[in-house]
Amino acid sequence: MQVINLFCSSGFLIAFIIITITLFLLKSRRPYGSPPGPRILPFLGNLTILLKGNLIEISEKLKATYGNLFSLSLGGKWIVFINGNEHLREVFVKHAEFFSDRPKVFFIDKVLQNKGVTAQNGHVWKTHRKFMETVLHNLGFEKNSMKSTILEETQHFLSVISDSNGEPINVSYPTYAAVSNIICSIAFGRRFDYNDVEFQKFISVMYELLSNQNIPVINLLPILQYLPGDIFGAKRILQQTHWLKKEFKRFIAEHKDTIDTENSRDFIDEYIIEKGKNACLTDDDFPIAVFELFGAGTDTISNTITWSVLYLLKNPDIQNRMRDEMLCAIPTDRLPTMADKLNLPFCEAVIAETQRLANVLPFAIPHEVTEDVMIGQYKIVKGSHVIPNLSSVQHDEELFANHLKFDPLRFIDKQGKFYGQERIVPFSLGKRVCPGESLARMELFLFITAIVKKFRILPEEEGIFPSSQGQLGIAYKPNPFKVRFIEWN
Ligand code: HEM
């Protein structure tokens, strides 16, 4: 009897092992027709690929080997990268109805808690998005107040830089504070002094959270958030999210006490009013909707401005040409306004070239495909995470020869006019295209031209320049560096 039991149990064990191995081997093969990619290892999938450098370099190498569509198996999910202008348009514009959902990756699920615009899908996403677009439009353009808010903030920012008296400073702090203040004006109807201790705490928490280089990695490999000892800092990220949400709830409560529904002051007032009429806007969504304005509207813009300072530092001739153009087009005693834009094609080209080279959201935000869809010869299987590799356009050597060179003339035609901005896609494309694009363009123009009009940007030490390497958190930001701003007489 014991022999039979032993036989049965070892038979069961052998069957179990065979089935498990078969399942793992099946799991280790790409679904039939999927885009190619590196060999998938049992248990590990393509995990080892993440050890081979940063994500931007890895994706460049994979694109060179496998072409514009390649796939990886990470954390039990299929991740498909879409590269190059043509494929990005085919996937996210032509087949937008299947490729516009968001997957539940760590940042969307745990930080944004599946609320607000960025994280939601379907009807609820459309409603939130429409609401955000309407408020940004009304606050920004209809009342025409956004331009003056930005110009006012630019003055505060310039005076902080002026106070440095030509000593080396890290420009990313005042830039971050200034750009956050513009979102404060939109969200809370007020700005803060840069020395305000509460404001400093608020932006330092936001800055640390959004700069966390582990976020893209945990998004790809969610299991990392559960490792003991919080090696990947996921718990800290969630504590910071909790703290920020608490702060936003405080502002919301203050607004509820003081609102005049006939005279909405800001985004929070608009939300309170709309929430009464629209069941999709809920109390749970509210603090996240405010958080997302900061998350999306601060890091991206302030990093682009910081990159522009770095590139201009390394290219004094380009600073001079921008300044000469401004001196011809604008009286010396004032800063550029949006009305000057058409007369400043070279300045516009510098901003476009900064967006191209800096490439601050190289992988946009992940999408998910809702059906099996054929793209050319490849099938993208339902449920795959789909990554728009915007970097593959901005750094396409065929479109932009010598693509690592900062050369604004790529955006100037033979007549000296600004042209060809549509060749880059920093705001992504399709239904999820950035809803803050107009605001972002305004801020980039007003800040970058103001800096160059007022100051000469010089290195901390003559002849020594910081590296152009960056770090990828939510956005791609330059490594910390210092510069001297010398006021023109
Ligand atoms: C230089 C500045 C900016 C850049 C480069 C940028 C870029 C992007 C990109 C690449 C996406 C992802 C689109 C996709 O999933 O395919 C995005 C989404 C988004 N952006 Fe921006 N953005 C900027 C500024 C802003 C500002 C100022 C705001 C708001 C005030 C904003 C709000 C959003 C929101 C809410 C989304 C999610 C849209 C959705 O899921 O439907 N962004 N942005």
UniProtKB/TrEMBL annotation:
UniProt xrefs under PROSITE patterns: CYTOCHROME_P450
Biological-process GO terms, alphabetical: organic acid metabolic process; xenobiotic metabolic process
Residues reported to bind heme: 434
GO CC term (a single one): cytoplasm
Keyword Amino-acid biosynthesis: no
Pfam families: p450
InterPro entries assigned: Cyt_P450, Cyt_P450_CS, Cyt_P450_E_grp-I, Cyt_P450_sf, Cytochrome_P450_fam2
Residues in the signal sequence: none
Family: Belongs to the cytochrome P450 family.
Name of the protein this chain belongs to: Cytochrome P450, family 76, subfamily C
Species for this entry: Mytilus galloprovincialis (Mediterranean mussel)
Lineage: Eukaryota, Metazoa, Spiralia, Lophotrochozoa, Mollusca
